[in-house]
């Protein structure tokens, strides 16, 4: 791989240049997401951590427990970005998460990544080439996070 990046386990997280016209809070949250990933948090743990931070809370045990969802429940099953973002939505808005927010996120994820990769499991997204993980996962995690935030905004959650 050319250019700069950070290696964490078998992930390589490239530096991301964020355009000035992006909203400050979104820019900060995306930068924080990539920081957590560079520090070694896996997809679901990073998203749960962000959900807690958005709520102004801290719960290291919950963040650690969320790591069980990474890499498709550590078995190549349902993508940890989806399950982690579902947990994040429940942390931020538990009243609407299960009935409105998570189904909308899952529908988007299936339409976006299920169609693109033939399914929503880690095995389907990564395929038989493990190097796909370094190229696909960081962008997929970020896009899923931004979609979850967009859904929250649509339901009236104010991030400022």
What does this protein look like?
With 160 residues, this protein is mainly α. The protein has one domain. It is 66% helix and 5% strand. The chain contains eight helices and two strands; from the N terminus they run ββαααααααα. The protein has helices at 24-38, 43-54, 60-66, 70-76, 80-92, 94-117, 122-126, 132-154, and strands at residues 5-8, 11-14. It has a two-stranded antiparallel ribbon. β1 (5-8) and β2 form a beta hairpin. α2 (43-54) runs parallel beside α5. The longest helix is centred in the middle third of the chain and has 24 residues, at 94-117. The chain is globular.
Annotate the secondary structure layout.
Layout: E1 5-8, E2 11-14, H1 24-38, H2 43-54, H3 60-66, H4 70-76, H5 80-92, H6 94-117, H7 122-126, H8 132-154
Antiparallel strand pairs: 1-2
Helix pairs in contact: 1-2, 1-8, 2-3, 2-5, 4-5, 5-6, 5-8, 6-8
H/E series: EEHHHHHHHH
Strand order of the largest sheet: 1-2
Overall spatial form: globular
Overall mean confidence score, pLDDT? 87
Q: Structural class, from helix and strand content? A: mainly alpha
Helix content: 55-70%
The total of helices stands at: 8
What integer value in Å does the Rg equal? Answer: 15 Å
How many angstroms does the end-to-end distance come to?
37 Å
Strand content: 5-15%
Number of domains: 1
**What summary fits the major beta sheet?**
2 strands, antiparallel
Number of strands: 2
Low-confidence stretches: 1-24
